[in-house]
Amino acid sequence: MRFLCDEMLHGLGRWLRAAGYDTVIAEQGLPDRVLARRSAEEDRVLLTKDRHLVAVAGRKARVVLVTGDGVDESARALRQSLEIDWEYAPFTRCLVDNSPLEPASPDLAAVAPTGIGGPLRHCPVCRRLYWPGGHVRRMQRRLAAWQRGLALPR
Question: What's the 3-state SS for the chain?
């Protein structure tokens, strides 16, 4: 599945990227008809909290009204409504620009923190460097909790 999140679901969109899904996050202020057309043209599921957008886009594209307050409730709702696998392909896409990550070259490893103990990846578009630090372990626990429908770990 590929997604297009409206601007209200920016945070959820980044988490979908973290889970490995090709997810575009709409720029602020785009008209509903533009979002509907883009979703249809790119064969993306349009995710929104806007009932009006559902009515407008539902004629042209697949649209899901995301329920729940906050990212955690919305993530659990998506797990149920779309059977999202929150452990699909974790940390394989850039969280910023959605590009697939690539293994980092040895010269990039020289600028990474020492002792990272895991695969080093980089984004070929924005050049960000990704490594499995403590933040990744916390994110993995959150994705796993959403996948299993559990309360979030502390």
Answer: CEEEECHHHHHHHHHHHHCCCEEEECCCCCCHHHHHHHHHHCCCEEEECCHHHHHHHCCCCCEEECCCCHHHHHHHHHHHHHCCCCCCCCCCECCCCCCECEECCHHHHCCCCCCCCCCCEECCCCCCEECCCHHHHHHHHHHHHHHHCCCCCC
Is 63 within 8 Å of 26 (Cβ atoms)?
no
> Which amino acid is residue 82, in one-letter code?
L
Looking up residue 74, the CATH number of its domain turns out to be 3.40.50
60 lies in some domain: yes
Tens digit of each residue's pLDDT (9 = 90 or more) over 51-81: 999 998 878 889 999 998 999 999 999 999 9
Provide the residue range defining the domain that includes 20: 1-89
Number of domains in the chain: 1
pTM (global) more than 0.85 = yes
